[in-house]
Design goal:
This protein is of the alpha/beta class and 281 residues long. The protein has two domains: 73 residues, Golgi alpha-mannosidase II (Immunoglobulin-like); 191 residues, Rossmann fold. The protein is built from six helices and 16 strands. A seven-stranded mixed beta sheet has the order 10-9-8-11-14-16-15, with helices on both faces. The chain has a five-stranded mixed beta sheet with strand order 1-2-3-4-5, with no helix packed on it. A two-stranded antiparallel sheet has the order 6-7.
Length: 281
């Protein structure tokens, strides 16, 4: 399966990554070690830093959007003002797992499966799920990100796939789904440390996560496949995330780990967030 992403090096609070033919140098606070290959960094087409503001150097070299394929999903990338480019490649192994698990369970259960992606960003996980044949609901509070995800769907020839595109506040949406008795077989949520809903609703993970998880539990189907919880918030370790999920399920399999940026053998793995999942046996 094609993958045009590669971590080239990291260190001194930065990461050097290749996205297709474009090499970028951006901040990464957890890269506290020394770089392994200092000579590679001069190959960066552009660099970004937050020293005294939000600053791109060489942004003209990446002024036009470009497309890459990561874990079998085509994605449009673009250098945004905040230093993001439209994908978090540390989640790519989770995309693969979602696609394979849903395809396997669709065959085993003999029915269509419904997948809900909350805080869904640019849609990598949604499209991986859609590739498995799942019926998907993609929700993000940012209309711009949902529009971006729809562009990615078209790149993957999934513009006519059974995907609901929702711009809304997560908690408000989930409460309506509970009332409508809408249920999902598999749910992914990646709550932000701090965010705003569609109408400016404040979301702080330490205040709203338990409410979100309560509602997620209420919209699970009677025969679900999994719940997958990810986080980039410091302090929300793999064990913390797993313990949060364990509150809702007495049986099944619980797994957890770190999300990693990776490159060729010998390149230091770079932790960039954590995950935990409950799998219904």
């Amino acid at each position: 399966m094609n993958d045009q992403y590669e971590l080239l090096d990291s260190g001194n609070g930065k990461k050097l990554e290749r996205y297709g033919d474009i090499i970028l140098d951006r901040p990464c606070a957890q890269a506290v070690w020394a770089p392994q290959a200092p000579e590679l960094w001069q190959k960066a087409a552009a660099s970004f830093d937050r020293v005294g503001g939000l600053n791109w150097d060489g942004r003209n070299n990446v002024s036009k959007p470009w497309n890459v394929e990561i874990a079998g999903v085509k994605m449009k990338l673009c250098a945004t003002d905040f230093g993001h480019i439209g994908v978090f490649p540390e989640t790519r192994e989770l995309w693969r797992w979602i696609r394979e698990k849903l395809a396997e369970q669709k065959t085993e259960k003999g029915r269509e499966l419904k997948f809900l992606n909350l805080f869904a960003y640019s849609g990598g996980a949604t499209l991986a799920a859609a590739q498995s044949g799942a019926h998907c609901c993609h929700l993000d509070a940012s209309k711009g990100m949902v529009d971006w995800a729809r562009e990615n769907a078209a790149l993957n020839k999934l513009e006519n796939a059974p995907i609901r595109w929702i711009v809304d506040d997560v908690i408000k949406f989930l409460r309506r789904e509970v009332k409508r008795e809408t249920r999902y077989d598999a749910i992914l949520l990646d709550p932000p440390s701090f965010g705003r809903g569609k109408k400016g609703e404040l979301y702080k993970i330490e205040d709203q996560l338990m409410t979100t998880l309560d509602l997620v539990h209420e919209v699970l189907s009677d025969d679900p496949v999994f719940v997958l919880l990810t986080s980039h918030t410091p302090g929300f370790s793999p064990i913390v995330l797993k313990n949060l999920l364990r509150q809702y399920h007495e049986t099944g399999t619980f797994e957890c780990g770190e999300m990693l940026l990776t490159g060729k053998p010998g390149v230091n793995d770079l932790p960039n967030g954590n995950w935990a999942r409950w799998i219904n046996n």
